[in-house]
Specification:
alpha/beta, TIM Barrel, Lyase, Ornithine Decarboxylase, Chain A, domain 1, 2 domains, 10-stranded parallel sheet, 6-stranded mixed sheet, 11 helices, about 25% strand, disordered N terminus
Length: about 375
């Protein structure tokens, strides 16, 4: 097991996250199988690879010969380049036109959805330079409106030193009504691509299908897909719409070491408030994992717990830098013992979905809460 940079679970702050790069490689292979051998995969690594670590994920996917990776973060993209990874990087957008020169300096492919950005590429480039155009086919978030896209793309293609390498859209969904809406949007997008090609414009890469449609088995006529959630074993649609079983979570554990055992043999004593109101036994445990580290206070009544030696122990307090739990009748514990906040311990497991349910949020909320706050350990691809 290896870690990023100098991040290790040391005695100074013994709390960490564990990731399985073999799960990422397995998920990638399954997606390629579903999409077909001739379909290009543009792996979405936005938001630091959904909180899993963009450099580690990019290295693993580059080893699988992924066609391209994508992100909206310039900082993340630069980190990938500085790690020596030469895989094409598609930038999803989020920059001002003045930032294009920096994109080209790091060999990043800009996404264009307005003439200001397209002109900036033309002016900054000294040779024919690839861009992708994003079309808003119904999401209502980012992209050139579908009705304006054909004339816009034709105009961009005529600019000096600009090559329209790809055209893409995004139409994610979670439920059955959303699935029908997404399919309609993709059909309109494909009609746009047909019109462009009929008008004489060759577009090497077209993409509309992402995680949600891949999970439900819907493929269109485009020659690329852009999976995100499902690469990391995260569901993006309701359970009844797709079977996620073939995909394995890349995040396998969040762990910490026990730093304190509180002994209260005489009852509450003078300390009749605070955590004593929740304590069921005479002993508590503490680990250095608090709000500052990404853990959030569970909702009232949620059965939030940690695992030690396969036993669930209820959390009784979350402060800025510490998590306190009741040791109940568990006697065989000592300072330095591993506790599991997420993952498997013995015959029990705390899942990401369970943790999100306790905290009243989504799976991505949990990942973003912890992102960048803890050392990350990576199991190498076997």
């Amino acid at each position: 097991m290896s870690s990023t940079g100098n991040d290790t679970a040391t005695a100074t702050h013994p709390t960490w996250m564990e990731f399985d790069l073999d799960a990422l490689a397995t998920n990638y292979a399954e997606l390629q199988r579903r999409a077909g051998p001739d379909v290009k995969i543009i792996a979405s690594l936005k938001a630091n690879a959904y909180g899993h670590g963009i450099v580690a994920a990019a290295k693993a996917l580059a080893a699988q010969n992924v066609f391209a990776i994508s992100t909206g973060s310039f900082h993340d993209a630069v980190a990938v380049r500085e790690a020596g990874i030469t895989t094409p990087i598609l930038m999803f957008g989020g920059n001002l036109p003045a930032g294009i020169a920096d994109y080209l300096h790091y060999d990043l492919i800009p996404t264009v959805y307005n003439m200001e950005t397209a002109n900036a590429v033309s002016e900054a480039a000294s040779k024919p330079t690839a861009i992708y155009v994003k079309v808003d086919a119904g999401m209502g978030r980012l992209g050139i409106e579908l009705q304006e896209a054909e004339s816009f793309i034709q105009a961009v293609a005529k600019l000096p030193n600009v090559t329209v390498e790809g055209v893409y859209t995004h139409l994610s969904f979670k439920d059955a009504p959303g699935q029908a809406w997404s399919k309609q949007g993709i059909e309109r997008f494909n009609a746009l691509i047909g019109n462009l090609r009929s008008g004489g414009l060759d577009i090497p890469v077209t993409q509309a299908v992402a995680s949600s449609n891949l999970m439900v088995g819907y493929m269109d006529g485009c020659n690329a897909v852009c999976p995100g959630h499902i690469l990391y074993g995260l569901p993006s649609v309701e359970t009844g719409l797709a079977d996620i079983t073939p995909f394995k979570p890349m995040l396998t554990a969040i762990k910490a070491k026990l730093i304190h055992i509180g002994e209260f043999p005489g009852g509450n004593g003078l300390k009749d408030g605070g955590y004593h109101l929740k304590r069921q036994s005479r002993r508590t445990g503490v680990v250095p994992l608090g709000l500052y580290d990404g853990y959030r206070k569970p909702q009232d009544g949620a059965p939030a717990a940690v695992l030690i030696k396969g036993q669930r122990l209820p959390i009784i307090g979350v402060s800025l830098e510490h998590l306190t739990f009741d040791l109940l009748d568990l006697e065989d514990v000592a300072i330095g013992d591993d506790i599991t906040v997420l993952g498997r311990d013995g015959g029990d497991q705390i899942t990401l979905a369970e943790l999100a349910n306790w905290q009243g949020c989504g799976l991505l909320d949990i990942l973003m809460n912890f992102d960048g706050r803890l050392p990350c350990h990576y199991h190498a691809v076997r």
